[in-house]
Write a structure and sequence with these properties.
Helices cover 40% and strands 16% of the residues. The chain has 201 residues and is of the alpha/beta class. Helix 7 links the parallel strand 7 (131-133) and strand 8 (153-158). The chain is globular.
């Protein structure tokens, strides 16, 4: 296997104007070190990463959206997979870093350590191009295929436990506002509305 950091470094070199959404934990820290930018939304709650990314992809069909999941997070929100298969947004890529652990919660094993195959589950849910990579070279090849595909991309990267990035004190509120303002600026849309003025009599 390989490390998540090695895979993320290959992804980071290909990121330009994509919207990137991560779960909590080491994936957020490593992406922050490799490719800090306003278009990254860090530390979305467990089980909600792919759902949020799907909503962004459907709302902004002209914009590439990348969800960076963990196996534990995706297992908490598996009901999103049939929705991905149904809507099949061509601008969405889901990358699942599967280390077989809830690493931030005492290194408890997830069900992928006991036989669950997330790529097979995704294919059964209608995501035809779901793939699995077990080394960085295979990951890089599958990543390039997914970025050029006309369907939803789904890539499971089997990675070793552990993080290659130090702890980073990311301010979630600041990050949220930076991300939303980035979407507003680059898409020419209004997400946040100013508070309504109250009439004074």
């Amino acid at each position: 296997m390989t490390t998540r950091y090695e895979c993320l470094s290959r992804l980071a070199s290909r990121i330009s104007d994509e919207l990137v959404v991560t779960g909590p934990g080491a994936t957020a820290r490593e992406l922050y070190e490799l490719k800090e930018r306003d278009g990254n939304l860090y530390r979305v709650y467990l089980g909600g990463v792919t759902s949020l990314a799907l909503g962004l992809a459907l709302a902004l069909p002209q914009r590439r959206v990348i969800a960076l999941e963990g196996d534990g997070s995706l297992l908490m929100g598996l009901t999103v997979l049939p929705l991905l298969g149904h809507y099949n947004p061509k601008n969405l890529l889901v990358i699942v870093f599967d280390n077989g652990l809830y690493e931030g919660a005492g290194k408890l094993p997830t069900l992928t350590a006991r036989g669950t195959d997330l790529a097979a589950v995704a294919r059964a849910a209608g995501i035809r191009g779901a793939r699995e990579a077990t080394d960085v070279e295979t990951f890089e090849q599958a990543l390039d295929v997914a970025l050029q595909a006309k369907d939803t991309g789904f890539l499971v990267a089997k990675v070793d436990p552990g993080s290659q990035a130090p702890y980073a004190a990311l301010d979630g509120i600041e990050n949220k506002y930076r991300f939303v303002h980035y979407v507003e600026k680059t898409e020419g849309v209004r997400v946040f509305e100013p508070p309504a003025r109250k009439s004074v009599r």
